[in-house]
Amino acid sequence: MLNQFILITGRTSKQAIGMHKGKHSETYRQAVVRAEMSGPDMERLGLSEGQCVRIVNDSGRVEMPVFMANLPDGMLFIPMGPEANRLIGTDTQGKGMPSYKGQKVEVETI
Amino acid sequence: MTTTVENAVCTFCGCLCDDIRVEIENDRIVKAKRACANGRGMFMDYDPTPRKPRVAGKAVSWKQAVKACARILDDAESPLIYGLSSTSTEAQKKTVALADRIGAMIDTTSSVCHGPTGLAMQALGEATCTLGEVANRADLVIFWGCNPAEAHMRHFSRYSLTPKGRLVPEGRKDRTVWGVDVRPTKTSRMVDHFIQIDPGSDYEVLTTLRAMLKGYRIEAEQIGGVPLTQLTELAHAMKTCRFGAVCMGMGLTMTRGRDLNVRELFALVADLNSQTRFSVVPMRGHSNVAGADQVMTWQTGYPFAVSFAKGYPVYGPGEFTAVDVLARKEADAALIIASDPAAHFPRKAAAYLETIPTIVLDPEENLTARTAEIFLPTACAGIDASGTFYRMDNISIHAQAVVASGRPTDQDILQDIMEAMQT
After folding, report:
1. What does the DSSP 8-state code read for residue B406?
2. Does B121 touch chain A (CB under 8 A)?
3. Which helix (H) or strand (E) covers residue B54, if one does?
4. Domain A2-109 has CATH 2.40.40.20
5. Same domain, yes or no, for B239 and B325?
6. What residue numbers bound the domain in which B316 lies?
7. Model pLDDT for residues B313-357, shown as the tens digit of each residue
C-alpha cells in the first residue's frame, strides 16, 4: 500500500542525548531510527505501534519502526540523523541548505 | 578526592549556560549540576583520556599523523574545509588561516543551520537584541519554527519564559507567549497560544501579518491553514506589547523558501518597530556556530561558503557550501573539524566523503571519523580545552577548561599541520 506523507526531520532530546553516548551506540540508534505519524494515519494504514515500514522517495529508502505521535494527518516525523538523511535530497536551491523539512515521501507497509 | 568548578560553561548548544557546577573525581566529571539533560551528557559522557590518532585504520603517533595530514593537504587541488561549530574561536581563526594558505573552500555548519538567516540579514538587516534584553524586557515572546524544549532546554528558564526581569518582575506571569509551528511539540505545550500552520506556508502567514499590521483588509478566511481570526489576535498582541521578541529556528530555514521566509520575518519585525519595540533572535544550535560566523566574517568578509581558490575570498552560497560541493564531487580532499557531516548531511553528499582523503578533528570518533582516512582525537573545547565561544545572541563567553588535558587542542594540531606542509 502506498501513501504520501510530508517528511519533517528535526532534533529531539533523545537524539541529542544519544549523541553523547556515541553515534555508534544503541542509545543513538534507537533515538534516530524511528518514524512518527498521527493515530488516524496509523489506523488508516493498519499499523500497530513499533511496526516496521518502508519509507521511499527519489533520494532513497529506509526501513524503520513507526510510532504514534501528536502530529497532523499526512505528516511523518523522523529525528535528524543518518537514517532520515537517506531521504533528503542534495538540491539546496542555490542556498546551501537541503530541504530537511517538507520533502514528500511514500510510506509502504511491509 | 572531589574537586568542584563553579560557573563552568556548557559548550553543547547556543545557550552557553555559564552557571554549571561541575564535580570532578580522578579527572572525570561525575556531576554537572544545573546542566540540562543535553549538557549533562556532554560533560559526563566525555572521556578525556588521550588517544592515539588513526591513519588508514592504524594507530600512529601524533607526529606521523600530522605528516600524513600535511601530505594530503599539500597534494589537494580543491580541498574542502568544513565544520567549526563545536570548537573555539581560537581554533576557527587558525582554520581560516589554513584555508587561505592552501586555497581551500571553507564552509561551516551554518550552511545547514542558519545560513539562510545570514542571507536574510545581508539582504535586509536584522533587528535583534541580547538574551539579557529578552529576559529583562520582553512581555511578548513568540517561538516560530523552533523547539527549545528539546534543543535549547534551559532557554525558557534562563532567558525567555520564566526569568524575572527588570521590566517583567513577575516572570512568566508578565509574559504572553505564542508558538507557531507545523506540528505540536514540547514547546507548544509551554505557550499560551499555539498556531499550527500548514507545512511550507510560513511566508504566506508572515506576509499576511505584515499586511494586517499595515491596515490592509484580508479577504481570505484562512491563510496557511490558520483561521484569519487567530492571525488577527497575534497581530494585535504584536502591536500592543511593550517589547516583543521572536525566537526563530529551522522551521523557517530548512523549508521551502529558506532565506525568503526569514526575510519576511525580519521585515515584519522591522515594521513592528514603527509601533513598538521588537527583536528577532535566531536560535543557533551548536555552541559556537555563531562564533564561526563571526570569525569567518572578520577574516574573509563573509559568514560561510567561501573559496580561497583564486587567492582571495569569494563568497558563494550554493556554490561553495559543503553539501553542494560534495554533491557535485568538486572536492578532492576534506578537512572536517568539530562536526559530523556523515550524520547530518544528505546521504548522497556524505557518501562522497568516503571516496576522497578525509581528515577529521573531533573529540569523539563520530560517523565521519569512522570512514575517514585520518582521525585526530583532539581535546573537547569547554571540557579539557579553554577557549572563546559566541552565544546565540553573539555575546562572547570564555569557557575555561574544567579538567586537565592530555590531548592537543584543535588549534595546536592545525598549527602543527601548517608547519609540516610544503605548500
Report:
1. -
2. no
3. strand B54-55
4. yes
5. no
6. 52-113+287-397+408-420
7. 999 999 999 999 999 999 999 999 999 999 999 999 999 999 999
